[in-house]
Amino acid sequence: MVFFMFINSLILLISIVSLFIICRLFIYRTALIYVLRRWFRFIDEKIYAHQIFKVPEVNENGQQNHLFKKVQVYVNSLASVEDSDFTNLFSGENSSTDIILSLDDNQVVPDKFLGAKVSWVNGRENNGQRCFLLKMKRKDKRRILKPYLQHILTVVEGMNNKELKLFINNLTQSDQNIGRWRSFPFRHPSTMETMIMDVDLKNKVKSDLEMFIKSKQHYHKLGRIWKRNYLLYGPSGTGKSSFIAAMANFLKYDVYEVDLNRVKDDSDLKMLMVQINSKSLVVIEDLDRFICKKSSSLMSGSGVSLSGLLNFMDGMNNGDGKIMVFTMNNKDEIDPMVLRPGRIDVHIYFPLCDFSSFKSLAHSYLGIREHKLFPHVEEIIQSGAMISPAEISELMVANRNSPSRALKSVITALQLNLNGGGRVERRLSDSVASSPAISYTEENGIGGWKEGVPGLKKLYGMLKSKSSNKIGVFDCASSPMMER
Hints:
Layout: H1 2-27, H2 29-47, E1 50-56, H3 66-77, E2 87-91, E3 99-103, E4 108-113, E5 116-124, E6 130-137, H4 138-159, E7 165-169, E8 181-185, H5 199-213, H6 216-221, E9 227-233, H7 240-251, E10 254-257, H8 266-274, E11 280-284, H9 287-295, H10 306-314, E12 322-328, E13 346-349, H11 355-366, H12 374-382, H13 389-398, H14 403-419, E14 436-439, E15 448-451, H15 455-464, E16 473-475
Parallel strand pairs: 7-10, 9-12, 9-13, 10-11, 11-12
Antiparallel strand pairs: 1-6, 2-3, 4-5, 5-6, 7-8, 13-16, 14-15
Helix pairs in contact: 3-4, 11-13, 12-14, 13-14
């Protein structure tokens, strides 16, 4: 009896131990497979001859290697990144609930293409610059190298299709591993459709941009750099920055915002420019402030020189396809040399709010086309009260549930401006409503804008109407001659 009890206990113990072993094997199954894979990979490397291709972050001239960025996006998208020993986790750009995996340094990520096995290693060179190492068997190189790289470009293009980026230049003394440009998602909601400006003028701007995009061969035929420079000028709050965002969204171009205060010297500015992708929007805001500072004794011996800035505007260091946009509050005191034809192709004036612009704002923000208070607003504006569209839009947003209250707040602001001596003198050219005309000049190689209204017609327009310019009056920046 005791013997049988002992046997039963022994069987029970063996069963428990067996179950425990099975569970442990199941738990460690993934680890065992992982170890076996590493052994097979080690044996494979010893048996076959391999070739390694390096993809550096920058080339020998210090220019950014655009293939590096594409490889980085592709490798981080591979499912095998999860199997690496060390992986960084980041929140997604589109949603805080998305988790993005990013490969850490010296980690191996395997991949397969057309039946061949390849691997990527994220490393650093001796100078601290990042690089990717692509490893494949020599016998597979001729068969898969070019198709594999083309496959990477196709996949990344589909992934980027297309989220716009805003790039801001870092300080020169920043960590060299960060790079000179730092990118952020560009999600500004402004579009050409939401801009408050004359419809005909808006269409002319869109046509000018579309014509530029299609004119690469025409520029090269003329021996010119394929670029287009815009100057947006006018008081603060008149929509210049929103217009830049609308241009970027219309073109589907990334935006590179150059902060000249973060640029060490002319050579540093050149280095920044060669790292900008083609078909990008390059923006320098408040150019008049920078030029005024360079004219003073305090700033004349430091930073970017005026000649370096002019070379930058001329596109001496630019690749093809870039559109450069400069903003100013006032261009009257700027040396004409800075704004000469060929250096600035299109001038667009953004005035303070006139009555027509006010009505457009009221329709957009309050949903009304007419109101009993409109005549009062028109009377005050024609009396000389001038405030920016941004001020009016903020008042309308704050009182959007009550159009009457919103209009009364606008009237109060206009009266304060008028009574407080805030009237701004208007130039003759800014007080005449005229229709811009397209001109194609030998200087620019592509149409610039010109006001083609004779002087008598301007005078008649002034007597007939006291309305000011719509947003976006184009100055003649191309040539004093117009082909007809």
